[in-house]
Write a structure and sequence with these properties.
The chain is mainly alpha-helical and 219 residues long. The protein has helices at 3-17, 30-40, 45-58, 62-66, 70-77, 83-101, 109-112, 120-129, 140-149, 159-169, 175-188, 207-213. Helix content is 58%, strand content 0%. The N and C termini lie close together (6 Å).
């Protein structure tokens, strides 16, 4: 089976099994999503969704957040991972939005990664979810699932190398949705520990599953 054929099987499966695939973070505008994604680093979406309602009520935009001290913001986000650093990043991010982008979340990758607390993965989430750009954010779920299924080669040892290979083979118009397909599949089926292989609709095409059970490749 060629790489192109494998990707088509994966696409066909997800189009039927998961026609709607969206972020599980709760937000109502680009600013809120940016805050939520920064908070979600090494933290569950469930936890982030628990703390963001009072945070967004207190600081609904860049101007109100920029006027706070990190210590004040810390009290709202203390239950997430690395709250001290994230509080500083959120305030710094809001201040840069005001100073450099008139308080609006930019759509450009290079502009996004300038913001405190925003790396390439976070920037790609914003590009894909808010602006529907062909950006593939590679988190731990996407990295794991891509390798297990065989969407990327073993030579793809960094998130950037995985991103480049996924973008190469997924059709451009599907990349924003494919990002969520892989995340949700990794979150609920192809879990880090004890993956639910028996219940997985992709096992016939999965490199790791075939290797585990010494199965021949499905044509």
């Amino acid at each position: 089976m060629t790489k192109k054929e494998l990707y088509q099987h994966i696409i066909d499966y997800f189009e039927e099994a998961m026609p709607v695939a969206e972020t599980e973070l709760h937000y109502s505008n680009p600013f809120e999503l940016l805050v939520a994604v920064i908070l979600s680093a090494q933290c569950t979406d469930k936890r982030v969704n628990q703390i963001t309602p009072p945070l967004f009520e207190a600081f609904p935009d860049a101007a109100t957040l920029a006027a706070q001290s990190p210590d004040t913001v810390f009290e709202y986000i203390r239950s997430v991972s690395y709250p001290n650093n994230k509080a500083k990043h959120l305030v710094g991010m809001a201040r840069m939005l005001l100073e450099d982008y008139q308080g609006e979340v930019p759509s450009d990758l290079d502009q996004l990664v300038r913001l405190p607390g925003v790396g390439r993965k976070t920037a790609n989430v914003i590009q894909a979810v808010i602006f529907q750009k062909a950006a593939m954010a590679v988190d731990t779920h996407v990295f794991r699932v891509s390798h297990r299924i065989g969407l990327v080669t073993d030579r793809c040892t960094t998130p950037l190398s995985v991103e480049k290979q996924l973008v190469r083979y997924f059709p451009e118009e599907l990349i924003p949705k494919a990002h969520h397909w892989l995340i949700l599949h990794g979150r609920y089926t192809c879990t880090a520990r004890n993956p639910k292989c028996d219940a997985c609709g992709l096992k016939a095409y999965c490199r790791e599953y075939r290797k585990k059970y010494k199965l021949s490749e499905k044509k």
